[in-house]
Amino acid sequence: MSKTILELKSELQAMLHSTSLDQVSNQTGLFNRAARELLHEVDLFETKKVANTAPIVGDVYAYAPPSDLKLNRVVDIRNLSVPTSDQTSHVTSRRFGRDATAQTFTVEYINGAKAIRYNSALGGATLINGGNAILNWAATGDVSNFALDSQTYLSSSGSLYFDLTGASTTATLTYSAPTTTNLSSTEDNSSFFVWLYIPNNTVMTSVSFSWGGDAANFWTATTATAADRISGFHIGWNLLRFDWRSATDTNTPVATALDHYALTITYTGTATNGFLLDSINHNNGKSYEMVYYSNQIFRDATTSLMKEEMSSDDDVVLLESQGLNLYLYKLAELASHQSQEQNSGQDVMYFNQKYEKAKQKYLAMFPSDAMRASTTYYRMPRHRKFLKINEGL
Fold it and tell me: Which segments within 24-142 are labelled E, that is strand?
């Protein structure tokens, strides 16, 4: 039973004793403000949606959520390729950072961008190189002081240290593996992951990764974003993701015998010291979907796309009768605040009461399915028991 904004304006005028809405300043703002307040208080049944996520892999914990995710109102995250009876749990950011157990997630902002941090507990990674030795590596372009660093690393026993000279704008590290790897079963459906320490993110433009059977036949993928931060590079360890599906091929690479890998940094040409390469891994992502509440209740009259705010009288409000009543009562309450009528104060109280009663009925019929973030509390031993233990020593 969706209605246009124009139809709601007609109903709203009747509710306000047929008073002209000309007394209401910024009507567009009124309709959008009422929508925001309604969405703030109620997880509307009509806004529940399902969307496929980016392929989820083990050891990657940050993913871009659907653009219309309402705050942190996630209902479920489901593995479509491997059904499981394990229940996904929503935890606080603090708990996730300390104890990211399997099937847990949290929603937070990273560098100004909303992100889903999710521990899928998926395994299956193939180690290409652990960064434990400079053997079989070659440094070209602006790379200098290429050496093994046994003090600063993420995994195993070391990482590869190098500086950028500033002579040009590119620097390349090439690894020629002593044995070949067959990844043909996951071609176009998997990703390579590189842990790169960046001492100064302001000099970074992009990072490219190439893989193939030799220096003439290879695939190349490029990123300007850290997979663990959603947007841009940052100072510190950056997990870089290179998807096979979006890679470009040079000549005729073959996935059955891979042994040639190259990492190329494109930067501003400013000399910078202190880069580290820790490891290169390959992993096959799994298909997941997310069930969530959307922050969009309007459909654009021209494009037919859903949106968060209305802009035209022809836009459609995508609510059924119960939701429309809630929206109308909230509109009437806010509009009464601007009214110059003698009984406007009574109207505000009246419509607020109608809204609250309608909200209670709505929530009873459609309780929210969104998971609340939980935390773990540890019970400290009582002091008396502590004394008894000491007495027995």
Answer: 48-52, 62-63, 69-79, 89-90, 104-110, 113-119, 126-129, 137-141
pTM of the model: 0.79
Answer yes or no: are the C-beta atoms of 139 and 148 closer than 8 Å: no
Q: Name the residue ranges covered by the structural domains of the chain.
A: 3-44+297-365, 48-122+287-292, 126-283
Q: Which three-class secondary structure state does DSSP give residue 68?
A: coil
Query: What average pLDDT is seen over the chain?
Result: 90
Task: Please provide residue 268's backbone torsions phi and psi, each rounded to the nearest 5 degrees.
Answer: -80, -10
Q: Is the dihedral of CA 17, 21, 26, 31 positive or negative?
A: positive
**Residues contacting 75, CB < 8 A, separation 6+:** 48, 291, 292, 293, 369, 370, 371
CATH code reported for the domain at 126-283? 2.60.120.260
- State the Cα–Cα distance between residues 171 and 30, nearest whole angstrom: 55
For 68-89, write each residue's pLDDT tens digit: 999 999 999 988 876 665 678 9
Measured distance CA(14)–CA(8) in Å, rounded = 10
**Which tens digit of pLDDT belongs to each residue from 179-191?**
999 999 999 989 9
Could you read off the pLDDT of 229-258 as tens digits, one per residue? 767 899 999 999 999 999 999 999 999 999
- CA of 242: how far to CAs of 283, 310, 321, 326, in Å? 10, 38, 47, 46
Closest CA to 282 of 171, 134, 177, 352: 177
Distance CA 33, CA 238 (A): 39
